[in-house]
Amino acid sequence: MRQTFDETTERAFGPRHVPLIRQAMAEQGLDGFLVPHEDEHQNEYLPAANDRLAWATGFTGSAGAAVILKDKAAVFVDGRYTLQVRDQVDSQMFEIRDLVEGGVPAYLEAAAGRGQRIGYDPRLHSPDALARLKEAAAKAGAELLPVNDNPLDRAWGKARPPQPTAPVVPHPAEYSGEDSAAKRARVGAAVGEKGADAAVLTAPSSIAWLFNIRGGDVIRSPLPLAQAILARDGTARLFIDPVKVTPELPAWLGNQVRLETPDDLPQALAELKGKAVLVDPAQSSAWYFDTLQAEGAKVIRGDDPCALPRACKNAVEIEGSRKAHARDGAAVTRFLHWLATEGQTNPPDEITAVSRLEAFREATGALKDLSFDTIAGAASNGAIVHYRPTERLNKRAEQGSLLLVDSGAQYLDGTTDITRTVAIGEPSQEMRERFTLVLKGNLALAAIRFPAGTTGSAIDVLARAALWMRGLDYDHGTGHGVGSYLGVHEGPQRISKAPNSVALKPGMILSNEPGYYKEGGYGIRIENLQVVTEATPIPGGERPMHGFETLTLAPIDRRLIVAEMLTADERAQLDAYHARVREVIGPQVEPEVRAWLNDVTRPI
User: Fold this and answer.
1) Where do the H-state alpha helices sit in 312-428?
2) pLDDT tens digits for 559-590?
3) How far apart are CA 566 and CA 439, in angstroms?
4) Is the distance from CB of 77 to CB of 473 less than 8 angstroms?
5) DSSP conformational letter for 312
6) In three state form, how does the secondary structure of 146-166 look?
7) Where would you tag: which of 43, 427, 464, 599 has the fewest CB atoms within 10 A of its CB?
8) Can you give the residue range of the structural domain that contains 60?
9) pLDDT above 90: residue 450
């Protein structure tokens, strides 16, 4: 098994570890310390050695923060984790607060005391976030101070896991579709157009994409932890721990890329004195800005120059994604068939469901890893948006309940992410109606045509409209970007209520995942991945319009659909989707699975 079901934290982490952190704070003359979720690479998913927030609080979600003061502490999470945080964090030790509404700045303004010295690790915070935090602390009369010796790391001591050392390997052109030299020339030219001599790159996904390399330092993502400096002429310096450098890597990178160690990075930054250097304040920590400015470089703030070209997949990557989804769809369909047969007469527990789905993916012979730990939520656990089964929380599905399964896989030719909600036994009318509302949102977002320049925030309402009309909603984004054998969460594109200035462009892959969650009852989510298509004319229209091609192929549980709630166009759209599923998946699966698939994808 790739996925395990042990808990890596416990509620006692806060009471056990916060006193140690406070002792280390006191030794440095600090009255408080800021603990972000992100690590030195601003990763969302973290290697165990960098999961500081989990060690300090017990909270293992992918977004959050904590503030530890001498006499009080608070942990901050967003709407995805409101249930999880109550289960994992000791509420006597930590006040639980909203990460979005006010967040850490509001807490500092209210809780910090006049004259207090509150530390932060400049390698872990973006400069823009720090500016807001410093302003809030100043309003309270407190001061934020950078520390070279992280008191949490000191408290963690020898118990801290070692840094990952997964080998870094080439990612061939048959999957990448463009060699690294061409990418570096193209991105280097863009750096020059911004008036910069070089760009500092710290995002593992950008480094993996630019150099056509993959690693395994970040859980469930084939990413190497590294840094790079890209010159405007396309030459580069790549800083990787030597233990991760495989024998074929130097020749693969070529003589325009200089391989160095992370210990060489400070000197390399010093050598940029007098140069104009592009750095992304959303991807690179304050340490880079402080170091470059101290060394006399001219810092240009701007977006990571790899982010947009990485997001706009080329033809090879798109075709690879189609193949990955066809392969993955067959595995998921076998799993759904198992749930529809054995799983109905002998409902599985969550761990069994996760294990069976992983086994179906392993049987493809192409699985490199999961793209995230599978979420399998039976009944009330399905209402916990980012729930992960453990031995303690494991629940068996029951007759008359729903099972929500959100999963994905990493293949050399693509990354997948799919959610299906399945009825176990006979669902209630409320379940069916709310599932259909979610389905209407998914269909609306899949069918939309939109002009160039449209952002994801402009179309987010399509996925929510049917729910809103019934007084319902969900507290997570509707769509995130997805990489090409990279991270399952990829920017800069997204579909959400939050304002987003990044236009949707051809080749971008995004999820389409509206949902509904009844606390204590059940959860519903339907998720497909879809790629933005080139703009094409619409008969009678005046402007070419972009659209989406749905990549994910697996049946949607028709037992949960109230057909009368769908319009004629929605029924036709669902029927057309299921016809594609039959056409692509049917030939790949066994006769008994094919017979079932033909039945459950018949016209609505």
Assistant:
1) 315-340, 342-345, 350-362
2) 999 999 999 999 999 999 999 999 999 999 99
3) 9
4) no
5) S
6) ECCCCHHHHHHHHHCCCCCCC
7) 599
8) 13-159
9) yes
